[in-house]
Amino acid sequence: MNIVVLVKQVPDSGSERKLDPSDNTVARATADNVINEMDEYAIEEALTVKEAQGGEVTVLTVGPDTATDAIRKALSMGADKAVHVSDPAIHGSCAVQTSAVIAAALSQLEYDLVLCGAESTDGQVSVMPALLSERLGIPQLSGARKLTIEGSMAKIERQTDGGYWEVEAPLPAIVSTWDTINEPRYPSFKGIMAAKKKPVETKTLADLGIDASTVGLATATSKVVDFAGRPPKGEGVKVADEGDGADKLVGYLAAQKIV
Amino acid sequence: MPVRRLVPTQEAADLLDLTRQLARDELAPRAAVAEAAEEFPRDVFRTLGRAGLLGLPYAEELGGGGQPYEVYLQVLEEIAAAWASVGVGVSVHGLSCFGLATRGTPEQQQWLPEMLGGELLGAYCLSEPHAGSDPAAMRTRAVRDGDSYVLTGEKAWTTHGGHADFYKVMARTSDDGPRGISCFLVPADSDGLSADTAERKMGLTGSTTATMRFEGVRIDADRRLGEEGEGLSIALAGLDAGRLGIAAVATGLAQGALDDAVAYAQERETFGKPIIEHQGLGFLLADMAAAVETARATYLFAARLRDAGQPYGQQASIAKLVATDNAMKVTTDAVQVLGGYGYTRDFPVERYMREAKVMQIFEGTNQIQRLVISRALARGGTPTTTVVP
Ligand SMILES: Cc1cc2nc3c(=O)[nH]c(=O)nc-3n(C[C@H](O)[C@H](O)[C@H](O)COP(=O)(O)OP(=O)(O)OC[C@H]3O[C@@H](n4cnc5c(N)ncnc54)[C@H](O)[C@@H]3O)c2cc1C
Ligand SMILES: Cc1cc2nc3c(=O)[nH]c(=O)nc-3n(C[C@H](O)[C@H](O)[C@H](O)COP(=O)(O)OP(=O)(O)OC[C@H]3O[C@@H](n4cnc5c(N)ncnc54)[C@H](O)[C@@H]3O)c2cc1C
Question: What is the set of domains in chain B, with CATH numbers?
């Protein structure tokens, strides 16, 4: 089974994140960059499937040179090889353009299963699996909290607010994962040493046969026109308990439409 | 103050990333609760072992990570910044493997991979109730009987006592003073070996310390490391490395205290501004930062001497002295920065202060470090310059 995991490097959602005021794109160069959290679950799932069924796990990422950190981490967790699409012209691409790049890169790979996170913590549009499904003409199973591969079928439990749906599709298929699906393993020092020797192929837009003018900020389908910092935290409301503290609290929560 | 590090390779940088991830996710959330409950976190050592963090400074052929001390000690520092008891445990475990790695025969070294992989936890028994600073005064005996030795006596202060799977034990094989001591690797399940009730300590309560009792413990003669009479020199060679371990642990502890103090000083306001902006307190924090970086630079220099194959015993003693005295000062000042809150058990800084104290005591008290340093001064010598490629 050939599995490709889509991995995106994003600014750490736990530290301060900024947009670059010169072109309103995510300031990646100065950010504390990490693997998109949800993608670690996709990697873990890929490794689990590989351990059960054999095969090979390839990491695919589209991103600037710094994304090599994310690739090394995925390889040190146990993925076998990686493809890194990096080209300055991709800067500022929207989700639709990014999906064209990922689809082109996938077309140059052999895959039975494509795994990705259910959403990224920066763009957070959650549409990548759908866009890729459309472009590649393969089914998508989105938002999995459980994945089973039976013969040539992929079955998932699709997580919903109230429970889950059982969804299945024939392979090759693309599956996106939530953080409920597994517990990602830590890399090990052995894995870190082994990662040094694993192949990483770097590709440009030209290698993928993509015209550079069709991607990037200038022709993006969506653009950040303006942005403003989060308003500073206001003074909190103080409730003095004069025997009616609970009523006041409930009243406040109700006024905020929280209860 | 975010730590800034220099490391020689990309894999060392990735290793430090992994360590910080483990420290943040597996150690930090549990430290306060386990310390208060005085619980030894045995499973944490398996987690660290599986990640490959317990055998870092040992050769790859022996099942280790083949990392220089410069890297291993910085990993240890990151672990201790999240949980000092675990940092001490990793250092002690590493020390318990030291004799086997340096003096074991190839047959004996077959035990190493399981030890370095963390499946087996180690301890070492040098001190006795009446013989701490002066280990040559030890009385525990190992008497040869055919193909075995029989050990009798008691070993005090054993870190991991009662939890370890094997004990590196120094015992007397003759009355020839320091040359009458030999080194043995004793399995925990040996008949006649038992642990007393653990000591009730001021701090480091997540690390068990207990007296080990040897009542006619019979072990195979092939459990002796090195020759008869080489035990004390094996132990002391290990101690030089162990002192660097404690220096790194103390530096991590101090870094953790500094980070908490700075964060608090940015939030807490008096007289209408954050206390970090009052010069009197800002300077206290500045001195703490200087003490932490001094400690780090000092242990790293000793580590680089060791990595370059140069004598480093005196520098190891200096590093242990400076790093632990600085940790005592920094943790005490961290309590001061937090004011009354710092003195309560609701904040970790009072615990850091209790933990720092023992670092001035074990692995050679700081008086003994001064003894080592001053003796080296008395011996004299000439300046050396070594080129590191
Ligand atoms: C308001 C807004 C502002 C934006 N601003 C910018 C900007 O300033 N600069 C900019 O460059 N883009 C910007 N984008 C676009 C954003 O980068 C895209 O959303 C992104 O390219 C792909 O979408 P996603 O990460 O949100 O995908 P999602 O559908 O949320 O991601 C799902 C999964 O797809 C995979 N995946 C997504 N992207 C990649 C990738 N590049 N490589 C490999 N796998 C991937 C991952 O597995 C991920 O978990 C913005 C989007 C929005 C909505
Ligand atoms: C938490 C903890 C864990 C430990 N873990 C281990 C372990 O795993 N294995 C192990 O073998 N031991 C361990 N020890 C023992 C530790 O190494 C000894 O406690 C230490 O070496 C000091 O010995 P002592 O307690 O007998 O003090 P003593 O030797 O009695 O010293 C008492 C005081 O006299 C001072 N002093 C002694 N001699 C001189 C001198 N010549 N000049 C000036 N001052 C001097 C000392 O500095 C000290 O202040 C541990 C101790 C503790 C507290």
Answer: 10-116 (1.10.540.10), 122-231 (2.40.110.10), 233-379 (1.20.140.10)
